[in-house]
Amino acid sequence: MKRWYLMRHGQTDYNRRRCFYGSHDVSINGQGRADAKQLALLMQKHTVDAIYTSSLKRTQETAQLAFPYRQVQAIADFDERGFGQWEGLTADEIEAAFPEVWQAWLEAPFEVTPPEAEVFSAFQTRVWTATDRLLDSAEESMALVAHLGVLRLIYQHLVDREAVFWNIDVPQGRVLLLEERDQTWQATLL
Fold this sequence. Notes:
About 40% of the residues lie in helices and about 20% in strands. The protein is built from 7 helices and 8 strands, in the order E-H-E-H-E-H-E-E-H-H-H-E-H-E-E. The strands form 2 sheets. A 6-stranded mixed beta sheet has the order 4-3-6-1-7-8, sandwiched between helices. It has a two-stranded antiparallel ribbon with strand order 2-5. The relative contact order is 0.23.
């Protein structure tokens, strides 16, 4: 039986300001450090064979605080989707600067690509391919500190393909445990 402990990175100032910032490489803030320490508490009674992060600072900083004495391996394919010219902007700022594209994106967010952003289908393929590579590994249990968009895609890929992307939530400071039993994955929020 495989056990995957999925965690969202700790809060950043961009999270607090509600900015789009996929590939911007920002650090966690004071609340983010508290989020990571909460993850450490939640994971005290769980054993993991390996710990992975994306290649971005916010996931690596979170993992270092959540698993202070463990080696962590970065996998760039678990980086958040790049949002191009929208990065660092709030929804209001995007709407003011890109009104037509913003409206089109709101109506079809998986088909419309913001200027210079990663195409959603390419993001999905990248994350699902990396997920499949981890599934093929010998590890029984692993922890992954990543980004909300990445964790949503992993949930859809393993647990429920019909789940609405926007309704999948992994709060900062919490762990989404995915367990495989009889080739079916079950999810529990710790």
